[in-house]
Design a protein that fits this description.
Distance between the termini: 32 Å
Number of strands: 5
Number of helices: 6
Strand content: 15-25%
Order of helices and strands: EHEHHHEHEHE
Shape: elongated
Strand order of the largest sheet: 3-2-1-4-5
CATH superfamily: HUPs
CATH class: Alpha Beta
Largest sheet: 5 strands, parallel
CATH architecture: 3-Layer(aba) Sandwich
Length: about 170
């Protein structure tokens, strides 16, 4: 017998590439009355970009910005304050664009998760921490096994998790 799906992690980069994947997630959540965790991971900047920005802004101003951002993310993830408004608004707009706020949407509930760091690592960690039965990710049409960052993230998640992963190509 197939285990019922109670919790689905939908990882999104908030681009149109994820629209089909969100439609699939909505259908699965509706079918199984599952909870959807919408996850957006803010990628860390590569070291050379980090160094350039530090040089342009000055070390102290850069450190203040980084510390403020980390504090916002930490407070958001621990529930001590609301999540970064801009990212939350982007997620809400994405949901409206693809119909998740439709009154006919019949999934049990949805939670918005925002984290920072390595994307594949965060997807796997959040899926485990929330006891997810399925991870859903969107891919560029034809980009699933290319050398693009989306392709490498998908490959890393597939390689490093024991949770079933569904990759939905965009149209």
């Amino acid at each position: 017998m197939i285990k019922p799906i109670e919790f689905i992690l939908f990882a999104t980069d908030l681009t149109s590439n994820c629209q089909q994947a969100l439609n699939f997630t909505n259908a699965m959540a509706t079918r199984f009355q599952a909870t959807i965790y919408l996850l957006h991971v803010i990628k860390e900047l590569p070291g050379n970009v980090d160094g350039r920005l530090k040089g342009l802004l000055g070390r102290h101003k850069w450190e203040d910005l980084v510390n403020a951002q980390q504090a916002n993310v930490h407070r958001s993830l621990t529930g001590k304050t609301s999540v970064n408004k801009m990212v939350r608004d982007d997620i809400q707009n994405f949901c409206k664009m693809v119909g998740i706020d439709d009154p006919n949407f019949d999934a049990k509930s949805r939670e918005i998760l925002i984290s920072q760091g390595d994307v594949a690592e965060n997807i796997i960690t959040h899926a485990k921490d929330n006891n997810c039965d399925l991870i859903v990710m969107g891919a560029k049409a034809g980009g699933l096994f290319s050398k693009t960052s989306v392709g490498s993230i998908i490959k890393s998640v597939l390689k490093d998790t024991k949770i079933p992963v569904t990759v939905v190509p965009s149209t």
